[in-house]
Design goal:
Elements (H helix, E strand, L loop, with lengths): L1 H11 L1 H32 L5 H16 L3 H7 L3 E2 L5 E2 L1
Antiparallel strand pairs: 1-2
Helix pairs in contact: 2-3
Length: 89
């Protein structure tokens, strides 16, 4: 009985299932990237690097490893870019 209900729901809302799946994959990827940056930053900090330098180096390496532009990684971390070229958090 539950299999029939599940199949009816999938036929009633096929686009919703596709969108929900893509949404979950997208946010799963974001959290993977953020976790990787955090772990890499901590690893650099354990080598006596200061926190800011460790974060910058981690962002750069994860950007190359995951093939994500560095600007997009900065956006994920909440850095806003002002058109004049200045940066603010």
């Amino acid at each position: 009985m539950t299999e029939q209900l599940a199949s009816k729901k999938l036929t009633l809302f096929p686009n919703f299932v596709i969108i929900a799946t893509k949404f979950a994959e997208f946010f799963g990827d974001i959290f993977d990237v953020l976790t990787a940056i955090s772990k890499r930053k901590m690893a650099f900090m354990h080598t006596d690097m200061n926190e800011n330098d460790a974060l910058i180096k981690a962002e750069f390496e994860i950007s190359k490893e995951y093939h994500i532009p560095l600007l997009d990684i900065k956006k994920l971390l909440g850095v806003r870019f002002i058109p004049t070229g200045m940066v603010e958090n």
